[in-house]
Amino acid sequence: MNSNHSEHDNNSHKSNDTEDSIKSTPAPPASLNVNPSTHHTIRSTYTESTIQAAYTLLRLYTQMAQELCNTLAASYPEQSTIAKLPYLPDCTSFEALFDLMDEQEYDTDPDLFYKNENWFIFPHGEHCLFVSSSGISIEVHIYDYRWIDAGFFNNFVKSISQATSHPYSELAQKLITAIAPADFQSFCTLLKYLSAQGKLLQHDVVNFSLA
Fold first, then answer.
1. Could you read off the pLDDT of 178-188 as tens digits, one per residue?
2. Contact in structure between 64 and 139 (CB atoms under 8 Å)
3. Is the dihedral of CA 194, 198, 201, 205 positive or negative?
4. How many CB atoms lie within 10 A of CB 211?
5. Is 119 helix (H, G, I), strand (E, B) or coil?
6. The whole model's pTM is what?
7. Model confidence over 158-209: pLDDT tens digits?
8. How far, rounded to the nearest angstrom, does the alpha carbon of residue 178 sit from its chain's CA centroid?
9. What are the residues whose beta carbons fall under 8 Å from the beta carbon of 15, sequence distance 6 or more?
10. Checking phi first, is residue 81 left (phi over 0); if not, alpha (psi -120 to 50) or beta?
11. Residue ranges per domain, the chain?
């Protein structure tokens, strides 16, 4: 038998063994082939606590993204076209909201008050950046708030870690320490790993959402 084929079979067998070990033990594998088409291999030393911290903050990001958009829509005057948009708790797209904002129906955007602090909004293209008075930063994909860009999540976690009064500040600090250097590549690798574990869906190179 061709030696290259033998090596490939052995590697495939090892990969299957690795996936089985993930299901039976809390410790993640040393490596996992996430996308065979690109031959991109993720190497990790993630502990279960690191995985849980990341997933908790991803859920927080998703929740805040939706609530901020809903709060923004509700902040406009009752007689406005924006206020009459049919937003529901399970709404995923806020495209109509930002389209109307782009038409400059009002000279200034309304004050946005959410989670006991003021927020500033910076709509641009397909995204809107929300920044709180305490420095928390969350950037939302307006066509589907559930999409989480790895770079945006990076900024979000770091801003939460620096907001020492925030209830998730310590958790964010621990995650940053665990995946040091906690740069864009670190977060992208982490999200790809979680996607491979079935916790996230990967939509493109950098965008993910909760599974």
1. 999 999 999 99
2. no
3. positive
4. 11
5. strand
6. 0.72
7. 999 999 999 999 999 999 999 999 999 999 999 999 999 999 999 999 999 9
8. 17
9. 32, 33
10. alpha
11. 44-210
